[in-house]
Amino acid sequence: MKTCVGLACLAVAVLIAAVVQADQSRPNVLLILSDDHSVPHVSCYGDPNTTRFGITPHLAAFAKEGMRFDRAYTTAPQCAPSRISIFACQSPVALGVTRFAQPARGDVRFFTDVLRENGYWVGLDGRHQHLDGRISEADHINQALREAGMQNLESRFDHFVRSASTKGANLAKVPGRVAAALDEVPEGKPFFLYFGFNQPHRRFGLEHAGIEPEQLVLPPDWPDLPEVRVDYARYLSELRDLDQGFGSIMQLLRERGLEQNTLVIFMGDNGEALLRGKGTLFDRGTHVPLIIRWPNHVTPGSHSNALVCGTDLGPTILAAAGLKPTEEMTGVDFLPQLRGGKAAGREVVFAERGWHWGPITRTDGLDLSRSITSARYRYLYNALPERSYTPVDMPETEAWQAVKTAHEADRLSPLHERLYFQNPRPLVELYDLQEDPYEMNNLAGKESLRAVETSLRQQLESWMIREQDFLTLPTHALQNEE
Questions:
Q1: CATH of the domain at 390
Q2: What is the pLDDT of residues 439-448, one digit of tens each?
Q3: Sign of CA dihedral 298, 62, 283, 218
C-alpha cells in the first residue's frame, strides 16, 4: 500500500514538474511602444542625426542583441487605429475604427485574450493604449461606450493602468512602474506586459541641449528653414528621453533575471509628427522601427527585409507561446523570419487614414486615403484630393507657421511648393521607394509602370472589398474623374 502511495506521489511530482517546466519554456513577452516614431530615427537604421548626437545608445545596443526589421509598417498613421489593430490583429477598416478614438466592438478578441485563456498573466501600463476610447471623454460618450461593451479593459487584463505619463519628471518613474507591474505576476506564470512611452509625441520640450540645429541633416522633402531645424532638434531631444527610459526597463529585466526568457519587442506605434509624417500614408507616416530580442531564438545583430504589418505582432507572439490566433485575426505570423528562416511572408502591406483629432476642413483633422506598399513600390489613393495639406499636431507650431510664411512670400522651392501646397492633390500616387525613398516624384500614369500601377490598384481594391471598406474604390473614382 505504501508502495502504491509512494508511486502515486512520485507520479504527481513528475506531472507537476512537467507542468512547471512547460510554463518555464513559454516566453514572457514585453511589448514596448514609442509614440509617433518613424524610421530612420534609431541609429541602427543608419540615421546620421541620431548617430552623430548619440541619441539612441540603448536602442542601438538592443538591436545588436536581436533582430532589426527594416520594412515594418503600421496600419494607420495615427495612434488609436494603429494600436487597436495591433491588439486585435485586424485592419482598422475591418474593425470599423478608422475614426480617431473609436474602440473596437465589445466582441472583438485581442491576442492578449488568447494568452490569458492559456495561462498568461497580461497587463497594460504606461502611456494610454487607446483600446477603449480617449483618456477622458464626455459623460454621454463614456456611457455609450460602456453600454456597447467597448470599455471593458479592467476585466480583460490582470493589471490595467489607463494612462501614466512618461514625460518630464515621470521618466524617472518608468522602471518603478514596470517593477510594480511585474510584482503582481503570480510565481510560475508567464507574463505579457505592454508598456507605452509618450515620447517622442508632441508637445516637445523647448530644450535640446547638445543637439545643434544647424548641424542636422534634413531630408530633401523638408524646406530648410531655421524653425524647422529647431523643431527637429526638439524632436530628437524627446527621442533621447525615450531611449533613456527604454534603457532603464532593460536594466530592470537584467536585475530580475528575466532577460533570458523574455521576448522583448520594441516598435513605433505610427509615424512621427513631423512634416509629411504622422497623418499621411507616405513612408514617414507608417514606416516604423521594429526591433525584437529573444535570447537563444533570435540571432543577435541580425536584420530582416521582410514586410511586416502591425497586425502581425499578435499572431507572432501567440506562435512563440505555442498558441494559434483566432479565425478573425488576419495578421501573418512572422516567427519563421524572426528565427532566421526563409518562410514566405507578406508580399504587400496596407494602410488607411480617417478622422484625426482636429478640424474636418484640413488634412490634419480629416483625410480619407488608402495605400498599398510592396517590396519596391507604394500606391496611394486620395479620396479627398481637394483637401489642403496640414501636418497633424503641427498647425500652430513655429515650424509649420514658418513654412506657410515662406509659401506666402514665394520663397519655397518649386519642389516644396508642390509637396506641401499643391491643390488639388493627385487622386492616385505611385512611388518607387528604391529610387525615390522620400516620395517626391509621382509616377502614376507612366506608361512604363502601367502594369505595376494596375496590379497594386487591383490588390488594394480587393483588400478594400474584403475589409468591407466604405470608401469608393479607386477604379470608380478614376472613372468618375474622367
A1: 3.30.1120.10
A2: 999 999 999 9
A3: negative
